[in-house]
Amino acid sequence: MIAVTGASGQLGRLVIQTLLDTVPANQIVAIVRDVSKAEDLRASGVQVRQGDYSQPETLATALQGVKKVLLVSSSEIGQRLEQHKNVVQAAKNAGVELIAYTSILHADTSPLSLAQEHIETEQLIRDSGLSFVFLRNAWYIENYFSAVGTALQTGKVFGAAGEGKFSAASRADFAVAAAAVLTGSDQGGKIYELAGDQAFTLAELAATLAELSGKPVAYVNYAETEYKDLLVSFGLPEGFAHILAQSDTGAAQGGLYDGNGQLSKLIQRPTATLRSVLQAHLATV
What is the pLDDT of residues 2-36, one digit of tens each? Predict the structure, then answer.
């Protein structure tokens, strides 16, 4: 059986939907914190099991009989390592044969502060003795959806990335890659640096929005501290605003760029473009 943690989340749900194309539903386990949020998955025949990263006893039950598991990294920054440790230990105890982990692009050399918990989790998995695959994902293009409304209202995209390039891809592309690894053979020990085929700057993001919307949109670059303060003024918690601002300056140093094409090779097609993803989103707003 193949299990996916965080299965009611955006990435986990897409991974399961992709797995259903080739794997019998009763051989897929959706591990979720709240089973009421996965009734659609249960209706499709997938086994839905309750499992909370912070409650190890639930994970032991959730992973029974599982041979491969996708550990979708926790969204609780600052608590990730301990939560991931619980999943890894439960997987080892359950006799899981392969653990795939969603890490961050070039985790071992990344200038982004977000990378630290990913590096520590990767080492934790290595030390466990489990056969592993690291899916080092670049940014999701969907990360920018929250900025679209503001950009169209103000005519500005804000950031601190300068001319830094983002090799972002759609969440669906990363999901297809994860499913390919989970259903493939001889994956143990592999590390994939997964990124979109066409990198873009935030100025190019603004230009694409302008073209698609017919409204003037320009990129405004800030220093990291100024951008953090701007995000706080928009209502973001200071800690999260700091992470976003630091991620932009990390991107300015090349931390979110990769041109090796591993993602498109893994999914056996070109990755979705910034234009196509934004166009589809604008059609819904």
Answer: 999 999 999 999 999 999 999 999 999 999 999 99
CA distance 89 to 130: 10
What single-letter amino acid sits at 13? R
> How far, in Å, CA of 103 to CA of 117, rounded?
9
Task: Tell me the whole-structure pTM to 2 decimals.
Answer: 0.95
Residues 62, 83: contact at Cβ < 8 Å?
Answer: no
| Burial per residue of 102-132, b for 16 or more beta-carbon CB atoms within 10 angstroms, e otherwise | bbbbbbeebbbebbebbbebbebbeebebbb
Instruction: Tell me yes or no: is domain 2-137+170-194 CATH 3.40.50.720.
Output: yes
- Which architecture, in CATH terms, is 144-165+197-258+270-282? Alpha-Beta Complex (3.90)
- For residue 55, count CB atoms less than 10 angstroms from its CB and return exposed for 0-12, middle for 13-18, buried for 19 or more: middle
